[in-house]
Amino acid sequence: MTTKTSSETREPAPLLAVSNLHATVDGREILKGIDLVIRPGEVHAVMGPNGAGKSTLSYVLAGRSGYEVTEGSVLYRGLDLLAMKTEERACRGVFLAFQNPVEIAGVTGVNFLKTAVNAIHRFRGEAELDAMQFLKVARRKAKELGVDEDMLKRAVNSGFSGGEKKRYEALQMALLEPRLMILDETDSGLDIDALRVVAKSVDAMRSPDRGLLVITHHQRILDYIVPDRVHVLADGRIAQTGDKDLALELERTGYAQFIGQAA
Amino acid sequence: MTTINHTDWLDDLRRAARTRADAAGLPTRRDEAWKYTDIGALGVAAFALAEPPKGAPPEVSSVGETIRLMLVNGHLITPPGANLPAGVVIEPLDAAFSSEQVRAHLGRVIPADRTSLAALNGALFGDGMLLRVCAGVICERPIEIISFGQAADAPLAFHPRCLVLVEDAASATLIERHLGQGTYFSNSVVEIALQPHASLHHYKLQDDAVSAIHVSTTGVSLAADARYAGVLVQTGARLARHEVHATLVGAGASFELDGAYLGSGHQHLDNTTFVTHAAPGGSSRQLFKGVLDGEARGVFQGSVLVERAAQKTDAYQLSKALLLSGQAEMDGKPELEIYADDVKCGHGCTVGDIDEDALFYLRARGIDESDARQLLLEAFLADVLERIAVEPLREAFAAVVGERLVH
Predict the structure, then answer these.
(1) Which of A65, A87, A104 shows the shortest C-beta gap to B366?
(2) How many structural domains is chain B composed of?
């Protein structure tokens, strides 16, 4: 049991290890045994038809209530991710970029972002930022991402266009400096130019100690964030795994071959 | 020289009020306007009328630079001082009874026959106050009235009274803060008469003692192009009712009232408004937002009457409440009665729970659940508090609200 193969000793310990993950929503099984290992520095894409369970996977990893894990395990940096509260996962470096970011009337961007940044600093035992320090960092990163400074003063996501919301997600990612970034259909609702800006800023965050899980229906985001592995999720299971060429092939062939096959 | 015998005038006023109060008694739940709020059950009828307090006044800090006066159990103990701006008059009503303006408005904005509690106040009020801002005067410094209830062993009753006159094109800011200790019944009446083009900002914090009963009746009479902007925050008292009677008498008047209330435990917080549009071109806007936890109960009754003459009226009211527990309860009764045909009127009433999607979003960014809840609740109430134009006051009210939201 303790014997290690030579390949395992060379590879770094997984950032995320999902084993036989089953999950239900309202009593209906959506995930039917997912296995997925992401090592530091790797980018994995999960593609698949609508209703395959892609968003469910992202919500289970982020800890949304109503998504019940019935079997299997998820280790994040060796720790039991499923035992952690949502906020603890975030503080330990799990970041979910939402497909549909929620509009939160009355909470200004500055207040929200500063509260989040300082919650994470506190968790990590780092000094909290005061208002001036925070604004300096936030303004710089906002500028890099083409996020209008005015958006920081407005209520979170309120009245933002689709593109603005996704840039705002990317800004949060840049400010919170996560270890595992999960992109849930970040490309949906984006035009080509907005997609390029957002995808490039995510790609710029790639580093040897970070992992990235890109959940998408379309291949085009993967032109900017080139994946190491591509998985096809169909009917709650990984139906096929390959390299980046699999994504291009899917773009040609579509998902029809996977629909019904797994059932 | 003829001396006006103002004592007789006052006595007549009180006598009429007493007759009315005796005949009506306290409201019961059989009264349509008191269907949801049972004041009789609390035994206030047996509370002794408060004597002038002895000993040092309680220490209460001011909210910024204000013209401040303090009432303890309805008795004026800290007068506003001598350095009032020119054209601003603040004096006890019994010294001011001879004035034409007082006679023209006292007991007229809220007539004693309007409500039995206003009648009770008319019969029993102690040191009533007159606040008068003379024509054309802009009173920059807010006038702050602190009404402090101080009851030791036995429960007490007191009946603060205030008449506010803002004359032609004058403007002022009035702050009311209700605080206290012990078990008491505070039954206040504030009559506000706004003359043409006058403007009043009226900010009220009801943060009475947890075992207090607070009832207030505020009357607002708006002449042509007058403007009233009120913000009400209710956090205190075992049972509280803020009742407003506003009448847009002159054309083009504007009435705005925003309210926030927070209840927990067994608190009962009632906001009842009657707005009458009697002249054309007026607008009224009301927004009430409540957060109710524990077994707290909230009431919003908003009645808007648009008379036949009040064409081109724009009237809107909205009540939103969040219930944080399964035992909290909210009763809402919006009523529109419209007799003019060219008007814009709307109302809405919602009761909901905290937004779970927003809560998850905040938690997914590392903010722990209780902080996230507080952030969302503060945000829910923010558009009410943002209406407070005086910054130190806005901060002070927000601090009281913030404290209440911490679990």
Answers:
(1) A87
(2) 2
